[in-house]
Amino acid sequence: MENFLEFIKTDNFVMTSAILNLILLILVIVLMFFVINMNKKYIKFMKQLGKGENLDEMLKKYLKDVEEIKQDNSEIKAYYTKLDYDIGSSVQKVGLIRYNAFQNVGSDLSFAIALLDRENNGVVLNGLYGSESSNIYAKPIKNGISTYKLSEEEEEAIKIASQGKEFQTKHKENKF
């Protein structure tokens, strides 16, 4: 340990320290130029990759756009969910039976029509056409069933409507 302390006090130590500091200073300057050069190359590369624009700014813009699109998609999803709910209660299924209610009246002018939603709720209308008078009766339908007594034609119209979403019609021969 004493040898080291004596060496520190000599001129050789000062010269060695000065040379070592000079070498470190030169190394720091070289590394600084190397970093500056790499930074220029990086900026040039990013501009080439971004076709003249700063790639970092482009990425920030794209991220902002993605967030806006996510928000728009969320609003669209909420809208179509509400729309799907609203459509569920609209008339989606129609069944129609045309028939002759009376023998002396031709052309199938009497009818039973069922107008149902997705859950088979709605109404069945029965129009009786006679030579002296015409009447229309309406009966509510819940889950394909009515609390009122249904005629054969009304039941058939409900059955046709319940089978699918398309409009279906059927003709039936004279009733009376």
Give structural notes.
The protein has helices at residues 2-8, 11-49, 55-88, 152-163; strands spanning 93-99, 110-116, 122-129, 134-141, 168-172. By secondary structure, the chain is of the alpha+beta class. A five-stranded mixed beta sheet has the order 4-3-2-1-5, with helices on one face. Strand 3 and strand 4 form a beta hairpin. The longest helix has 39 residues, at 11-49. The radius of gyration is 45 Å and the shape is rod-shaped. It starts with a helix and ends with a strand. The model has no long low-confidence stretch (mean pLDDT 86).
The neighbouring-strand order within the major sheet is 4-3-2-1-5
Structural class: alpha+beta
What does the largest sheet look like?
Answer: 5 strands, mixed
Radius of gyration: 45 Å
Blueprint (SSEs and pairs):
Blueprint: H1 2-8, H2 11-49, H3 55-88, E1 93-99, E2 110-116, E3 122-129, E4 134-141, H4 152-163, E5 168-172
Parallel strand pairs: 1-5
Antiparallel strand pairs: 1-2, 2-3, 3-4
Quickly list its features.
single chain; 176 residues; alpha+beta; 5-stranded mixed β-sheet; 52% helix; 20% strand; rod-shaped
Characterize this entry briefly.
Helices cover 52% and strands 20% of the residues. With 176 residues, the protein is of the alpha+beta class. The longest helix has 39 residues.
